[in-house]
């Protein structure tokens, strides 16, 4: 038994091989150790890309450890390769000296040529710098299932459980949770249950008996703060955050949405959770998704619309109206690779400028971003809070990486989160010329500039709102030049006022403000790699500071001051430098963009290299 | 007096339904009579102002909500049914009216329109069809006839227009009616029935734009020729028209509907109008009798059938799940995919 | 051999129409047979690759253009008819095919779809209807039946689906047909006729998504029950189906179409199918015979009538004006609102 | 006869009073003098706002002079007020001591109260600081038409011609052109022709005989460069520019558009001009407007789509595809007041950030802006040239002010404008693995990065393009991370390469670069007021420099250098500072925004004041 402090495993195989499932189950048992962990699923855009091809490879990476970790790891230590294509695609990222667990049965001539191999890599010298284990996974799986009554074709499909069993043995994961899960999940399908169970056990036992491996490994439990934990993907956490916000505001949740990868899972999750009074509406398109949400908002629902890149373009006109009417709603953008259809299943942060600027006319809208899978819960609540408090649409940014990956999460005590007060107005707030009480929809709170909001159904508060410019206060249509200017300024001032209410940006600089040689600014999912990178350079004795932005519009009130302490500012983004441009404009600081647009999150090493680069060139 | 009109507990009259905003349509515009019909009808049936919402898109017609002393949203060109859908699902307690134009509903808003029809969400869509874009000063619309000379078609338009009734029926509409701006009583009746209908009701109103398209409907709506051009559809009655009822609609030997002379076919051969047919085919066939407003044209309720209302169904599913699983518990939700505890 | 297939002057075979891209649908997907039918048909009729353009939206079906060795655009979800409209107007010399799915054409793209129908622009719209969103992994679509349990409707869908044939007819379509992915010859025939049609032709293909909606059309398309569930529409022939032709369609005494037993009504009572009727009402009525794919369903060409083609009309107006005014002269244009000269 | 060097007249009356017509005719005769001139029409959003109300007032302002002028004038010297509402609305902008020509017949009790007057302003002291002429225009018009056979109600409608006649007399405009015009325009309607003729003459004669006026005025001809001139509105010039570009490129013009104020007139104009082979398509919405244009572009048309604010939102997704496919098209945005429906008939410049940033993903698109009505012609050609040369969508910005106002314009000699070479590829540019010639759509020009483009219909060049990321060169779908990054960079580099081909930004500083105390940066229609303002402060002995930006993306290559010469940079915009933000981000200069968002262009005095303000506070 060898002790390791951390391991990165990548399960890779054909889309039909069940790698996501194997990865997910491994994640669950790992969370029970408990190890700290982070995951990175990666799958092709096609539903079923042609079997055996490079395009059809699906993978799941998990990084787990006995200490606090942030990223799913740069390079896997172990690669499970269920077929030649999987090896082909992932070999180059394997750490030097890494382990390859290859399903040797799949390395037949046909599969090799489909993957583009002219000879079998398991046989030549090509892999000599790795530790290669050739395991007949298909054959062993078939044998294990032999007298279970399953057809061989079906039995073969259980080989992911064989692999899972084997890896579970290698890293001394408990077997009971997996066995329990298989039993429950396939309760109604005896043959499949039996095949999966037998294969899983066969894989585990193979490790134990085959004497192929020098030893088992152990990764000691990480020290977690005490509490109850779960493992959650970003999309699930975000959906739950919306439900929690609905409870906190006592406003029913309405989701108007049109399916799009990688946002659809939020719709799926919320559609299931009707016991929370959630109403989900699959609209005919993104415009109607946003429009229906805005209609529901007018009616007093906590209104949300979810989408990804292309949908953001389509919703722009409606969000402009929402900003103009000053009605709360949340627009969730799970960013993916653009422009246009791009690469739908890969991650990017390239919608930031579109959500900040992408509406005609002057229509400022707040923007909040989730920084990790579990943080999506908190970010969702915060987006809803700002929306309701300030009567404004709010963009909530996540991305494909956050959406699909998972991490351990201390369950929050929702009853202790501050409630959201919609503060509906039920009595007239104005007296008209004839002395009659009436309701003026654009009378504002002097501090937040939020307008007083009354709901249909309230007698005596009847009123009309609309997209034409309106008179301050009364809300009547107005073409008055100075009134228009005032309204433009008020809407801007309202969004800027949010800066007063949100927390100042935190500065992580062990030497105090300005102590470090360089400041890294992260936002959204770059948080984890940037934090990890900063830690690494600090470990090398260098001085790097970090500030993470959860609020992209408006910026926290102290951001200018924080940036002002540093001569060198680096802004790593999975785009061509969108936040960086915004910081330069707002604060006239010479922030430099570290850009990566490959559909993948930053690796810690990339951040480390970028920091070393500026420090070295000093 | 039977049905006492009440809002906030008080009886209302037409003027209670008028907002304090000056009505800004061109003098002589057909929109005025529609406004009057709507206000009167709502007062008559005892609707409640506080539970009534008018949602519109953009266009001359779409200014309508500003003039109603109810809740209202003047929204985005073409998108009123989308907003109304969300509002109706979220708030099944409200009476929701969508006011739209031929451009708003059928050009930019065509998709939301057809989806509203099939979903049968609780809203009454009232389309002011003037066969022109009024607000943008006179371009042709998807209902303009072929050959229309307008600002954007100086050599005549070449697009076959939609027949809004056929389109709605093809999109699975449950309530479809047509009326016109020169007959306030008929408008009121058809609007009232729309209001009573559960689900999406669709009312096309032939509306005169006296500035950009004056008189397009005058054969049907004008007093002089009306008798020969307006075919009244009355449920349960033979379909008959003409100065002296000398014409009618009957199914011919070829199995198809035709305009006939009553004396030729005999009264008994006339088609008895049935708005409640489950199959929309006959209503569709009626909608094809006229190829444009210069031919005898059916006016009235083409179809009125029941189908589950969308917002109700949404609420039912929620209630059923709540009933079965109990009201959701957040703490339990957060634990639902398994937990571990560290002390 | 009569019609020699040629491209760039050479005869083609099916494989000339296949691009070098690997076809990436799920094994067993109905899309494969449609692709084969299209490629074979185009080779058969001697179409020219260089003049053929496939335009699609987004969806599994919309990957189609990548696999055709022609010109092609894989565009934006729902927008293929919009792009194709511009291309067809600009380039009346091209053969334009729009490939779309039930979500692409009828959900997000519904508006462009209905406007393409009414305008009658030169394009063939082929809708792969699998009653599901394939590419986004299994949400219900506007053609999914009520009660469909899908990822986005875990408790069953509540939306009444569109009947694409009814919708197209309600939108003034000139060519409307339905076929299915299990009958290559029928597909080829219907596609060929679509290709010959001037203006917009619309072909609905029942397509099996074996991953997310396996077998929805199996009553109609499967060999075992097909005879009892597939009602073939053949122009000029009595509408008749069943293992031994024992069923048919006839107009009843109530004037409406019904499914009948031939022995009860007699052969002569059967409806003779006429795809060329100017009035779309009978075609519409045929489209209502089945309320879903689990009832006997008409398959074939519902309607095929002539109406001026849009791109041709645009070109005609241009030519007429050029004829009358002469080819435009820019210098004269710039002077057209009056000038003055300073020396 | 008194000589004046310049005059500003504003015709104002009810929407039904024909003020736009009167103004336009006055403009035409003024251009014949020739005076230099600039106009500013202003009309209500309603088709026919209720007669007599303040909301229903329509006005037309013309500024004409014996010297070079730039703006329609800040304050009118003469106000023609056809009714009380017109007086009410426009009085405050009249220059001190200005002339009011009031149609006294319209100042009855009903009209006064409709306009919100409790007493008749023509009778009290209220107007004592102006020179008020009370003229019974209605009565005189009716009398003039008495025996022309016109019904009085119809005759009354000619009173705009009475006013025109009167003002024509006052400023010694020639009468023949107007008489000719009336005769031609109303050739087929004798009664109307007669009524208008008589009224016009009556107005003219009234001036001559009434002895009400001390004298006639003359504004001497301005010195124009020799050439043939016409007077043109921005929308007309823009439409003509598109036609000229079509000829220059030998590509047929295709316009896919959906009507929207104030862009519709371009559609109307092009729909008429079929003799130029133009095909116009009124699409079902803006999405289809853009989509049809993109389809036509694929087919080799010079493809254009025209719109205003809300339409820009809706076209975003399609423009993203066009940028990704790299197909040329021009998107014309006649900006109006936003956000949402805003004030459709008023002007604004607030779509700049939306067109630069408003698409999901990284999708850079060039932006060009027209600076005046006649310049719209040139800007349209330039936008088309860039689009075709670089195979890219290009935004062409104009605004409501440019669109509807007019100015004298020396007719260009189109035959001397450089042709646009679409450079279609007709032969294969690649040899495939099997040695067969084939066409790769993404092979580029090494300098411009423009791709080689082949049209459908060309045998042997069959190819597919699409919104999924594609392989550099071949254009096949590619999910390769590094290829994606390369493509993002290439698309960006292509747009940046345009900076090399466009002219450097001109610096107007009499003292040479850096000589002035402040640099004014204008763009679009702010040009005229900024230039006029700069001239005024210079006339006061101050030093102000100016640079005008026609290219907003990319910026001219020398812009950073030009800005670098100045410590104070002012950026006046009819928005909240959108260009200013972009300049700050790009060049880290402390540019300050001068913002006006009132639906109106800047006045010269406002610019002057802003400049004095920074100079004074120095
Ligand atoms: C997105 C968008 N596109 C275009 C417009 C311009 N627009 C306003 S109303 C209208 C059409 C009006 O026609 P219709 O719906 O028939 O109404 P009407 O004025 O005739 O009552 C158009 C094109 C707009 N406001 N917004
Ligand atoms: C604007 C936009 N919205 C949503 C999507 C996501 N999306 C892609 S295809 C699709 C639906 C596919 O269904 P269908 O048209 O029926 O095609 P199928 O995959 O079933 O062939 C959706 C929702 C997108 N790509 N773009
Ligand atoms: S333009 Fe036509 S539709 Fe609009 S208000 Fe005037 S008359 Fe009515
Ligand atoms: S998901 Fe369905 S429609 Fe898509 S390729 Fe697979 S089987 Fe075909
Ligand atoms: Mg209209
Ligand atoms: Mg589908």
How would you describe what is shown here?
The complex is a heterotetramer, with two copies of chain A (618 residues) and two copies of chain B (343 residues). Chain A has 618 residues and is an alpha/beta fold. Chain A folds into four domains: 218 residues, Pyruvate-ferredoxin oxidoreductase, PFOR, domain III (Pyruvate-ferredoxin Oxidoreductase, domain 3, 3-Layer(aba) Sandwich); 187 residues, Rossmann fold, CATH 3.40.50.970; 79 residues, no CATH class; 110 residues, 3-Layer(aba) Sandwich (Rossmann fold), CATH 3.40.50. Chain A is 37% helix and 21% strand. In chain A, strand 5, helix 2 and strand 6 form a beta-alpha-beta unit. In chain A, helix 17 crosses helix 20. The radius of gyration of chain A is 27 Å and the shape is globular. The two termini of chain A are 46 Å apart. In chain A, 63% of the residues are buried. In chain B, a hairpin with a 5-residue loop joins strand 9 and strand 10. Chain B has twelve helices and twelve strands. By secondary structure, chain B is of the alpha/beta class. Chain B has an eight-stranded mixed β-sheet, with helices on both faces. In chain B, strands 8-9-10 form a three-stranded antiparallel β-sheet. Chain B has a domain of 221 residues: Rossmann fold. The N terminus of chain B is likely disordered. At the A-B interface, helix 1, strand 9, helix 9, helix 11 and helix 12 of A face strand 1, strand 2, helix 2, helix 4 and helix 11 of B. The structure holds thiamine diphosphate (2 copies), iron/sulfur cluster (SF4) (2 copies) and magnesium ion (2 copies). The site of one magnesium ion (MG) has 9 residues of chain C, from helix 3. The site of one iron/sulfur cluster (SF4) has 11 residues of chain C, from loops.
């Amino acid at each position: 038994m060898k002790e390791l402090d951390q391991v990165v495993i990548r399960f890779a195989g054909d889309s039909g091989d069940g790698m996501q499932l194997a990865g997910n189950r491994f994640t669950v048992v790992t969370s029970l150790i408990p190890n700290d962990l982070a995951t990175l699923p990666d799958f092709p855009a096609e539903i079923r890309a042609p079997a055996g091809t490079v395009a059809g490879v699906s993978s799941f990476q998990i990084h787990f450890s006995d200490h606090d970790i942030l990223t799913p790891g740069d390079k896997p230590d172990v690669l499970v390769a269920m077929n030649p294509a999987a090896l082909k695609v992932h070999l180059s990222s394997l750490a030097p000296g890494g382990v390859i667990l290859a399903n040797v049965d799949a390395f037949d001539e046909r599969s090799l040529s489909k993957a583009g191999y002219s000879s079998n890599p398991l046989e030549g010298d090509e892999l000599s710098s790795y530790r290669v284990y050739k395991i007949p996974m298909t054959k062993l799986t078939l044998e294990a299932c032999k007298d279970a009554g399953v057809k061989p074709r079906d039995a073969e499909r259980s080989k992911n459980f064989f692999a899972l069993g084997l890896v579970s043995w290698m890293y001394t994961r408990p077997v009971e949770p997996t066995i329990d899960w298989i039993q429950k999940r396939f309760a109604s399908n005896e043959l499949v249950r039996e095949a999966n169970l037998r294969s899983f056990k066969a894989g585990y036992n193979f490790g134990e008996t085959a004497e192929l491996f020098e030893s088992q490994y152990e990764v000691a439990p990480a020290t977690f703060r005490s509490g109850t934990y779960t493992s959650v993907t970003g999309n699930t956490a975000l959906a739950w955050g919306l439900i929690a916000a609905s409870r906190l505001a006592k406003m029913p949740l309405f989701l108007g949405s049109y399916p799009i990868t990688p946002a659809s899972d939020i719709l799926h999750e919320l559609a299931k959770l009707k016991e929370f009074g959630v109403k989900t509406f699959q609209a005919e398109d993104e415009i109607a998704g946003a429009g229906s949400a805005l209609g529901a908002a007018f009616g007093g629902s906590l209104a949300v619309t979810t989408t990804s890149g292309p949908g953001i373009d389509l919703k722009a006109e409606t969000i402009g109206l929402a900003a103009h009417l000053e009605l709360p709603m949340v627009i969730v953008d799970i960013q993916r690779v653009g422009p246009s259809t791009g690469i739908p299943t890969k991650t990017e942060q390239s919608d930031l400028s579109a959500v900040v600027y992408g509406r005609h006319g002057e229509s400022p809208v707040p923007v909040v971003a989730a920084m990790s899978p579990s943080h999506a819960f908190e970010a969702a609540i915060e987006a809803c809070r700002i929306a309701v408090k300030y009567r404004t649409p709010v963009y909530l940014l996540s991305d494909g990486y956050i959406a699909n990956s998972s991490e351990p999460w201390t369950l929050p005590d929702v009853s202790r989160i501050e409630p959201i007060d919609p503060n509906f107005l039920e009595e007239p707030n104005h007296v008209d010329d004839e002395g009659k009480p009436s309701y003026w929809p654009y009378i504002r709170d002097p501090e937040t500039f939020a307008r007083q909001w009354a709901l249909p159904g309230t007698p005596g508060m009847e009123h009309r709102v609309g997209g034409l410019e309106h008179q301050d206060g009364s809300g009547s249509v107005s073409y008055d030049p100075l009134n228009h200017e005032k309204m433009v300024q008020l809407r801007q001032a309202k969004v800027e006022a949010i800066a007063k209410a949100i927390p100042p940006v935190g500065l992580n600089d062990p030497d105090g403000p300005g102590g470090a040689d360089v400041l890294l600014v992260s936002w959204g999912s770059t948080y984890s790699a940037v934090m990890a990178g900063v830690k690494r350079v600090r470990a090398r004795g260098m001085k790097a500071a970090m500030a993470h932005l959860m609020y992209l519009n408006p910026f926290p009130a102290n951001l200018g001051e924080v940036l002002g302490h540093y001569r060198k500012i680096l802004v790593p983004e999975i785009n061509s430098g969108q936040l960086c441009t915004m910081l330069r404009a707002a604060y006239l600081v010479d922030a430099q963009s570290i850009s990566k647009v490959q559909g993948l999150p930053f690796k810690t090493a990339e951040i480390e290299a970028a920091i070393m680069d500026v420090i070295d060139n000093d | 007096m039977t049905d006492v009109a009440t809002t906030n507990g008080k009886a209302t009259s037409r003027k209670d339904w008028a907002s304090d905003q000056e009505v800004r349509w061109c003098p002589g515009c057909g929109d005025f009579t529609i406004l009057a019909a709507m206000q009167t009808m709502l007062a008559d049936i005892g609707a409640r102002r506080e539970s009534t919402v008018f949602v519109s898109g953009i266009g001359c017609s779409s200014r309508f909500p500003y003039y109603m002393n109810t809740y209202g949203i003047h929204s985005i060109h073409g998108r009123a049914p989308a907003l109304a859908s969300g509002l109706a699902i979220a708030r099944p307690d409200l009476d929701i009216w969508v006011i739209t134009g031929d451009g708003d509903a059928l050009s930019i808003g065509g998709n939301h329109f057809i989806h509203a029809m099939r979903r049968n969400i609780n809203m009454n869509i009232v389309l002011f069809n003037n066969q022109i874009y009024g607000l943008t000063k006179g371009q042709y619309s998807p209902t303009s006839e072929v050959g229309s000379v307008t600002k954007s078609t100086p050599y005549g338009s070449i697009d076959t227009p939609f027949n809004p009734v056929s389109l709605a029926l093809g999109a699975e509409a449950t309530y479809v009616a047509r009326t016109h701006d020169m007959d306030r009583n008929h408008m009121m009746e058809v609007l009232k029935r729309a209001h009573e209908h559960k689900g999406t009701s669709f009312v096309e109103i032939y509306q005169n734009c006296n500035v950009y398209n004056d008189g397009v409907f005058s054969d049907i709506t004008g007093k002089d020729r009306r008798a020969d051009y307006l075919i009244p559809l009355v449920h349960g009655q033979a379909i008959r028209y003409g100065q002296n009822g000398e014409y009618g609609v009957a199914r011919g030997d070829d199995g198809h509907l035709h305009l006939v002379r009553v004396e030729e076919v005999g009264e008994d051969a006339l088609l008895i109008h049935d708005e409640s047919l489950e199959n929309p085919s006959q209503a569709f066939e009626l909608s094809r009798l006229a190829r444009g407003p210069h031919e005898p044209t059916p006016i009235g309720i083409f179809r009125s059938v029941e189908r589950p209302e969308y917002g109700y169904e949404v609420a039912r599913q929620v209630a059923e799940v709540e009933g079965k699983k109990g009201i959701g518990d957040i703490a339990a939700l957060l634990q639902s995919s398994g937990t571990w505890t560290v002390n």
